[in-house]
Amino acid sequence: MRQESSTLLVLRIILALALLGALFFAGWRIYHRLPSDQRLDPSAVTDTPGPAMDLTIMLPSDLAAASYSASIELYPLDLQALQKQYEAVPRPNKQFDEFLANRLKDVTPIRMSTDGAGRAIANVSEGHWWLHARTSLASGETLEWRLPLNVSPAQKTVELNRENAYERTKKF
């Protein structure tokens, strides 16, 4: 009788540990599948370890003459991947601009300004980049650009003009 009770006790302990292990594993799997607003999707970050190349960003001559200088920021991320991530999980009361701003907190941009001729040159690697630029014209108009870029040896120049501007505002 004593032998059966000790065998039964060992069996109970083994089953209890197996149950705790299964519960822990199930919780771990659920936790790691939850969407996180704090982490940037690794597939959205450009980390192509290729050779760096010069990317020329330019304003057309009419904008270059009318503007003081354009401030430009280049972020190493794939905007389309972020849009897919945003659309994959419904986020009521949260616009994509808020989602993007939250994701950009952890990404260090390359910052530059255009020179007197309306040109800026950035040394970047191949891959997906997101450009955010802003300039104020002498007329009081402000232009802002938000462009996804796919930097490759074939594309080494980006022109910021009125047609590809994201937003145009005028102060009265």
Care to describe what's here?
The protein is α+β, with helices and mostly antiparallel strands and 172 residues long. It has two domains: 1-34; 42-170, Carboxypeptidase-like, regulatory domain (Immunoglobulin-like), CATH 2.60.40.1120. Helix content is 33%, strand content 31%. The chain is built from four helices and eight strands; from the N terminus they run αβαβααββββββ. The protein has helices at 2-33, 61-66, 79-88, 96-104; strands at residues 53-58, 67-75, 110-113, 119-124, 127-137, 141-151, 157-159, 167-170. It has a five-stranded antiparallel sheet. A three-stranded mixed sheet has the order 4-1-7, with no helix packed on it. The mean pLDDT is 82.
